[in-house]
Amino acid sequence: xxxxxxxxxxxxxxxxxxxxxxxxxxxxxxxxxxxxxxxxxxxxxxxxxxxxxxxxxxxxxxxxxxxxxxxxxxxxxxxxxxxxxxxxxxxxxxxxxxxxxxxxxxxxxxxxxxxxxxxxxxxxxxxxxxxxxxxxxxxxxxxxxxxxxxxxxxxxxxxxxxxxxxxxxxxxxxxxxxxxxxxxxxxxxxxxxxxxxxxxxxxxxxxxxxxxxxxxxxxxxxxxxxxxxxxxxxxx
Length: 236
Ligand SMILES: O=C(O)CCC(=O)C(=O)O
Ligand SMILES: [Fe+2]
What we know:
Elements: E1 2-4, H1 11-27, H2 31-40, H3 47-62, E2 70-80, E3 87-90, H4 93-96, E4 106-111, E5 122-125, E6 146-148, E7 160-162, H5 164-171, E8 174-176, E9 184-188, E10 193-195, E11 204-213, E12 225-226, H6 227-232
Antiparallel strand pairs: 1-9, 2-11, 2-12, 3-10, 4-9, 4-11, 5-8, 5-10, 6-7
């Protein structure tokens, strides 16, 4: 299940994160280095920006979900280098199965620029779109069969994939989600998704914030922080 958020990230916040993302792109010496930089981007630095971006979207989301202890499970920059490989179809639950007692994690995928197929924009199943008010029904899906592939590089660093027969069936109803700069979609951990190879000649700039209910966390994986902790911080 997924929904396009009505709220958008402000131009000022997108401008700021784009500036910092560009520094990462320029400093990375390889596609692999860029992948790791993406994952670490919001861990120690850039929490000031994460807070501002969170505050742009969270008021809308908060109204529709009922978490006892809202946390940010993780947040990443999602830059796909020019020529960066397709991220083949998967459900995030295949990666996150041991993180929670009951699945609650959902991702907010934010476009830092206009998304196209050629850039490697996000593709989702059109029949799974719901209005934002139905976010309360997130994470009640089921898991398709996945397989682990050996060479993670062939799939943009995502090595657990929906098996080929199911993938080609689902692919018939997958579509690019059209997103302008600052627009975002929220999708739950059962939502099959993929992105194509970036053939645009320029880096694709996106980011995600994965929210969860901390009351369901196992100790298998550290989380970033509680939303109230992030909101409280004034001098990051
Ligand atoms: O942004 C992408 O290319 C794919 C990201 C993805 O699959 C995820 O963040 O779960
Ligand atoms: Fe994913």
